Amino acid sequence: MDKAQRDIGPEAARFSPAAGLAKLLGRFSAAARRYRIEWWILVAGILVIGFIAFMTVFPGIFTGYSPLDQNAGPQLAKPSAGHVMGIDNLGRDIGARVVYGARTILGVAMAAALLSALIGIPLGLISGFAGNWLDKVLSLVMDSVYSFPGLILAIAFAAMLGPGVINITLAVSVVYIPTYFRLVRGQTLSIKEELYVEAARAIGARRSVILAKYIFPNVIATVVVVFSLNIADAIMTEAALSYIGLGLPAGIPDWGMDLSMGKKFLPSGVWWMITYPGMMIMMLALGFTMLGEGLSEILNPRLQEY
Amino acid sequence: MMAYGSGDPILVIQKLSIAYPISIGTVRAVENVSLSVRKGEVLGIVGESGCGKSTLGLSMLKLMKPPGRITSGSILYKGLDILSMSDRALLDLRGRNLAMIFQNPLTSLDPLVTVQDHFIEAIRVHEPEVRRKDCVARAEAILADLGIEARRLSEYPYQLSGGMRQRIMIGLALILHPDILLADEPTTALDVIVEAGFTELLMKLKRQYDLTVLLISHNLGLVAEMADRIAVMYGGRIVELASVEDIFSRPLHPYTRGLMACVPNILLDQKELLAMPGSPPDLVDAPEGCPFAPRCPEAMDICRAKTPTLAAYGASSTACWLYERNA
Amino acid sequence: MPILIKAERLVKDFPVRGAFLEKKRKFVHAVDDVDIAIEEGEVLGLAGESGSGKSTTGRLLIRLVEPSSGRIEYRGRDITEYPKRELEDLRAKVQMIFQDPVSSLSPRMSVGEAIGHPLAIHGMRDKAQRKGAVIEMMEKVGLSPAEYLYRKYPHQLSGGQSQRVVIARALVTRPDFIVADEPIAMADVSVRALILQLMRQLKDEMGLTYLFITHDLATAKYLCDRVAIMYLGRIVELATRDELFSRPHHPYTKALLAAVPIPDPRARKPKDLPTGEIPSAIDPPSGCHFHPRCPYAMPACSLSRPPLRDVGARHLSACILD
User: Fold this and answer.
1) A3-299 belongs to which homologous superfamily?
2) CB contact (8 A) between residue A1 and residue C91
3) Higher confidence at residue C227 or residue B279?
């Protein structure tokens, strides 16, 4: 772990949220001077995500229509002053579907990422720390899952589990468990050899304590970055799943599904059904990617100062 | 070029300053250093971490890593200004006239290249027309001087011990018979007995190859054994420059005195090691005044206000207001 | 003084990952049948070069590394087979200081947390009480202002300060015995003297016993009461400080002493150095490990391992020479 990483790391990884945030903000102004582009990327990512998150919490500000209301206006109406994004083939206001659909996709993606992390991280820690047959078995399982193309795996699970928000979340999360596992296991393997871990043993700390207090905090920095990029990927996967029709029931507004429907009407010149959901998917995924990349530069700067 | 005899100033550093700009300010790694290296001498540059000795050494060959920059001053090798040389001329100078060996022989040698190929490359960089056979012959000759069997030529670095690798390093540095050898902490990574053998070897080669040696080290025992003169650095400046005997028995600068008093000597029965409180200064935007003033037991007001310059008092030089006042 | 910690016939072999089809497993014989007895209140120096086994021996004594065979006693109690629970309790009494202070502190733990953790492990649950004990310890080792440094992280400290934190952490549970593994090797010259001074002072104040592991004999001479010299996993000489440095017996000890650089130009003299380098610990020479390099070697030296025998007042040497 290089010195610069240590420079920023502990501040960002403090568990007290208020203290952590304050320190993070303090770090950001220093980072702004230092990193320029990367900092702006981070800020851009935060703004995009913030905006969309705001949209999920206060949908009323953005649209007066319900995403399920099939009498919002004339079917397939072009975008106009009253319906900024137009109407879809079932008479629903697309703007409303975009606004409310954000909840769905963001919710599923974040829940899936969280679930993957909650499973993958502890397994990675234990596997890396314990070694032996446990490590070999877990690695084998994880590597096998990892070697599957993510989307195929998600499709397989989604098909197996059937429709429903929870099932979709599960299907998407399975894909990413190995990512956390491998990352955390790798870090654990190298941190395990550090002198401070030996020192922790010398003061009498039990293995569980060593894992929790000495190894985990030193692993968390990279995990935070991966988490953000993971959400970006999960967004795309969820959209893809509902695009092919697996997953969410009709009643729930979903961008992927809208994409799928919009595709059918594109040849007849109806571009607004597919464009807006598509743009939103891209924006949201991009937002999280920028957040992840920006954080990555700040937490693990590639450019050494001297 | 005029001929340089023993004792002539073969490398002259004048008012050299090197700085590293970082986000919170500028690190003044080397400040206003002037030094004249005499042909045939072993000049020891001594100091603790952060004193600037390694930066100074690297700057001789303009090997500092960016963003380090030489902000002022000059380095003259046999009258030639190194700092204004073209990159091409500098590349030629390195290895042929000035050579350097570093602390860690493990990372200084390419693990994928045999010893022999290391030598061939070292020669060919400067003399591309030399035939392979001749390169190997020269390598064998120098290996004999180093006390290494010729069969080692076909081996890879991992097959050699640490001491042997360090000797190969010297060999690579000396293969083109440079005038000046810079050694930056050459024995820090070596065991005591190997270190002693290395020191003996270096002295022998110095005589044999008529070298001038700049020895950068924090190890006072090492410089006591090898050096003719010693420059003590602190906070990026030279605080004392004197013969090795004077430095150890009649140190002028309070920092030098402090150093001498805190080093264990196995031949003596030392009851107490007198330690200097405090730690080396922060070189970022260092303020005016003597860098040692915060820790100096004899600091005066003027020490904190104005930076003393290196001045001669008899055969020794020191940068200290204690003497300048009384001069 | 009574014996505080003792080890008999200590052996540690580390398996070496051989090539795929190698018939016999190879081992690094890091510690090869070592006896050691440390008296309460003394500073025993364990000196040697790389591969001597000194660091491993130190770790074996406190069971940070498990011995391949041998017996370890602490205050007369056999701790070789101590179960995990008792061993954890023991850790409050026997502690270690490491070579690289920066690497031996977790970058994500503040000074206060790092020093306080041993207290938490050994039962001091009350945070305020812990903080009080930590601040007290910090002031004892010269980390001041303590309140200010309490919140700092290792990367914000100087080398000397980091090593003081490591020392504070080792002493906060009021142990009896400290294994100090090259505690000043990575420090600046001027800081070394400070740390040595501090270690001496703390030893007197807190009634400590040290095993001081070092490769620097000059430092050993300054700090230690007795010194043991190790070579390739074995103790080759053991004597009081004055005996060892004025009347070294074993040829390896003599070589080491001759090789130590002296910070005095008047002491320059040609040195009588042994040939060759330290051999591999996987396949060490037979009999006396030093015989291939020893200027006095006789045929008998390669046949059997010379035992440690009395050669003077409290002076043992593993050499058959007179």
Assistant:
1) MetI-like (1.10.3720.10)
2) no
3) C227
Chain B residues with CB-CB distance to C192 below 8 A: 262
**Residue B236, token pair as written in the block:** 């990026």
Per-residue pLDDT, averaged over C179-205, amounts to 91
Domain layout of chain C by residue ranges? 3-41+51-87+210-317
Confirm whether B113 is domain-assigned: no
- The complex's ipTM works out to 0.87
- Label the pairing between strands B212-217 and B42-46: parallel
**Interchain CB contact of A3 with B (< 8 Å):** no
* pLDDT score, position A17: 58
- C154/A6 touch (CB, cutoff 8 Å), yes or no: yes
Query: What domain count does chain B have?
Result: 1
A167-193 burial: b if 16+ Cβ within 10 Å, else e: bbbbbbbbbbbbbbbbbbbebbeebbe
- Please give the pLDDT value at position A248: 78
pLDDT tens by residue, B22-55: 777 788 889 899 999 999 999 999 998 888 898 9
Q: In this complex, which of C87, C110, C121 lies closest to A203 when CB atoms are compared?
A: C121
C-alpha dist (Å) from residue C308 to A155, C290, C303, C305, C315: 73, 14, 16, 9, 9
Whether B122 is in a domain gets the answer no
DSSP classification of residue B24 = T
Q: What is the pTM of this model?
A: 0.84
3-state secondary structure of C82: coil
Number of Cβ within 10 Å of residue C23's Cβ equals 5
Contact with chain A for residue C96, Cβ under 8 A: yes
Query: Per residue in A127-167, pLDDT tens?
Result: 999 888 999 999 999 999 999 888 899 899 888 888 888 88
Q: pLDDT grade, residue A4 (50/70/90)?
A: very low
CATH number of C3-41+51-87+210-317: 3.40.50.300
